[in-house]
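Per reviewer request, we include the raw input and output of the structure prediction for the construct analysed in the revised manuscript.
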Amino acid sequence: MLSQKIIKHLNQLQQKKYRKEFGEFIIEGVKGVDEAIKSDDEIILLIVEGGRRDEEEIRGIIEIAEKNNIPIEFCGRKDIDIIKTTDTFPGVLAVIEQKEIILEDIADGPVICLDQVKDPGNLGTIIRTADWFGIKNILVSEDCVDVYNPKVVRSTMGSIFHVTIFKSHDVLNSLKKLKKEFHYEINSLDMHGVTIAKLKPKNKAIYIFGSESHGVSHELDELIDTRYTIPGSGTAESLNVAISAGILMSKLYI
């Protein structure tokens, strides 16, 4: 049975302000927790549904956690109904310490820049896709959905532990610094650009994706060297931002 202090803390970690204040976030599910354990992220607490502790996958996680001296709490159905973030609790969750990332940490290799991407599922899918294609650096603007939102974290399927994500409070200045001091070229995906077929992958390149409704912020226009587009022949007005990012990232995979 969980203490009221732990239950309160877990519930409050579903709020962006609280996550920021405490520098922690939650990951649920065997896959996500397993990836967290494999990474160098610090796991503060592992919580396991007591009735499922003998399931093979969960038992494996418990054994690894014990070897790594990770604190473990077992809980019952009553506690689960209070702390779960989805309709069906997957049997295990972990509280993770947020990493301190600075701009210089992503100044090595291609960078995916996300501007005003509000949908948690889209952000999580982009993170997962970047991991699939081996792209390790992601820059998100202040007005994107929070990277540690439970829906975002869940959508990454553990890939959040394999990419470096820098949250910029001033994306314009961050991009200016990457361009001036680290010699990056800056590109964006646009409805009216050069066909993506002409894109040639470069190590020092940034690719900006804006929201589906507003596109890339106008304040970033001055920095963009090349605008690319994904040609289509159907009647759809536009592509989902996660799909667009996936198509472009597939072009960067060499």
